[in-house]
Amino acid sequence: MLGACAAPQPDLLDQFEATLAAQDSATAALGTWCAARGIAAPPRISAEVLPGGMRSDPHDLPALLQLTAPPGYRHVRLTCGGRVLSEAHNWYVPQRLTPAMNAALAASDVPFGKVAAPLRYSRQRLSSQRGAGPGCPADTILTHRALLRLPDGAPLALVTECYTPANLRR
Fold it and tell me: DSSP assignment, residue 71?
């Protein structure tokens, strides 16, 4: 008698995408992924702020964030255990954050998702593609563009996240 065929295992990129989709915070999802893959213990996600100022704003930024003043901007590399897991562009509405949150974003390596977590924002994925999207390094394995919203529906931030091949390495 022939044995039953085992269902194919989802590939590692599928598993990574499922981990990201399971949470509103990419920072929290990367922490979960870092722990599950044994990348670092403890699985602390840090934001390395990249110099060079703001890249050009997306054409739809004012409408998406309902801007009445200039946005804040943060270009970071999110790392775990010294491994760069993503590069992110984050445009946000400073007026919708507390003064302490704005200060933390200006002066620390704490990721936006962790700083803003007390606001209980939700994530609306605008697009997802395997490979490099606009503004991402050429070796990007997955690009997400998302809008973060406060519980009342007000937009808080627009993010472009460029996930690196380091997520799939042992």
Answer: P
